[in-house]
Amino acid sequence: MQNKGTIIYIGGFEFPDKNAAVHRGISNSKIFRDLGYKVILIGVDKKKSYNGDILKTRKSIQNFETYSEGYPKTKIEWIKYLNSIDKIKTICQEYSDIKLLIAYNFPSIALRKLLIYSKKKNYKIISDCTEWYDSRGNSFIYFILKKFDTFLRMRIIHKKLDGIIVISDFLENYYKKKIKTINIPPLVDLDEKKWFLSDKNNNEKIKLVYSGNPGYNKDRIDWIIEYLFCDDQNTNIELKIIGITRNEYLNLYKEKKHLDKVTFYGKISHEENIKIVESSDFFIFFRDYNRVTRAGFPTKFVESISCGTPIITNKNSNLINYLDSNAVFFCDKNSDLFDVILNANIGKFDRTIFDYRNYIKKVNDFMLSINI
């Protein structure tokens, strides 16, 4: 295929597979590669010195060239990280045919500088926006700075870019009348070995799993535990929590009961995570309904569908768009969770709806709309 030029994709990607950001970055990059572009990804590495030479971090991940900026640790390094694009410019100088910069959830001041730089160099620039951050729950100074950064990025700078990739209907509806917009949920590559299915283990217990980083004002693991184990006589449920430890749970939630009935795994590798999800009867998660959850789209939802594991959740984001009666079972506070589990009509469902290949034409049309 003819080389159409180079795309530089910049964000908080922790290579090779340490966070949801890198999974999105790699999957989207496969679309651009299939369309004929060379994609360079710039991420972060918490083990590297912030002041190190970024050109020396070059690696190949799934046949993509990647670079990793050292993660800031001091206040001075954080100020530089949030305001400087010098390391990005250093990498851009290595490539003579750059057509597009993609900034993933980028800090506002640095994004503005990147916009000015791209115009000077005659690059197109777009954002990949997957969050509308909430600054509550932190110190007053952090609250003010985060609120200013979010306002500037979401309401002003994004609208000056050449286009925007969003992850949800909420963000699409906000931007589509102001800027060229494409809505892409989290995607996977079902040709990767980790998505090949194995047989589920059959036993008497009903196996449920939650996996993720609940964070502030997002997932409510405490609701899961409360709903599942309110009846102390119930011993037929097995619940696994992946992503946080028992102590981390205790720091997040007020509800402390029934934790002896839960297996906490903490952070594990992505492949181990997928194996546990795949072997479970249900993936379960509940979310608060607020701007943070409406603006986002849970990667865990996509990965569970791709594993062939049905989901129990409440209505949030735009999950209703991907409803399959055999795959997704909605449950709210007024529902009896056990009734939902016992009456779930589990059958075969389409695992391929989030395969990245389904979005190649849509992305190609978007690229043409921004004149690339």
From TrEMBL:
Claim: Ribosomal protein is one of the keywords in the record: no
EC number: 2.4.-.-
SUPFAM superfamilies: UDP-Glycosyltransferase/glycogen phosphorylase (SSF53756)
Entry annotated with the keyword Glycosyltransferase: yes
GO function terms (MF aspect): glycosyltransferase activity
Pfam families, per the entry: Glycos_transf_1 (PF00534)
Keywords of the record: Glycosyltransferase, Transferase
Domain Glycosyl transferase family, chain residue ranges per copy: 200-327
Source domain of life: Bacteria
Stated name of the protein: Glycosyltransferase
Species assigned in the record: Eubacterium limosum
